[in-house]
């Protein structure tokens, strides 16, 4: 089943990349601290970094289909844990399928909600 999901994701990725022709000015992100249960929503401008608990999230860019910043948005994120030089995550996260390329961290979950346009 996992292999089937991966194959479908690889097939769908080029189609999504072709549809997503607009760049957003930033990204709306949700972070969950699994230890405390605290959920944090944030608007992160492209090229900026924001801290949540013991992690820092940096957004490079967010892309979305023409005229639909909330639909099938995907963002390039870098997530670092404080005091750790290497990122714990660097790559594209897809709003409509957050499990395809998820942050693998014992304490935090981070996912993309949508692109921001202003």
UniProtKB/TrEMBL annotation:
List the keywords (alphabetical). Signal
Task: State one Pfam family annotation.
Answer: DUF2155
Its domain of life? Answer: Bacteria
Using the record, list the residue span of the signal peptide; answer none if the entry has no such feature.
1-17
Q: What is this protein called?
A: DUF2155 domain-containing protein
The uppermost taxa in this organism's lineage are:
Bacteria, Pseudomonadati, Pseudomonadota, Alphaproteobacteria, Rhodobacterales
């Amino acid at each position: 089943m996992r292999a089937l999901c991966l194959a479908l994701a690889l097939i769908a990725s080029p189609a999504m990349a072709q549809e997503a022709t607009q760049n957003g000015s930033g990204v709306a992100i949700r972070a969950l601290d699994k230890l405390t249960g605290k959920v944090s929503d944030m608007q992160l401008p492209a090229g900026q970094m924001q801290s949540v608990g013991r992690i820092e999230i940096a957004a490079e860019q967010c892309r979305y289909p023409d005229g639909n910043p909330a639909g099938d948005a995907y963002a390039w994120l870098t997530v670092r844990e404080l005091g750790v030089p290497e990122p714990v995550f660097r790559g594209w996260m897809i709003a409509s399928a957050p499990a395809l390329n998820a942050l693998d961290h014992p304490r935090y979950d981070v996912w993309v909600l949508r692109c921001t346009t202003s």
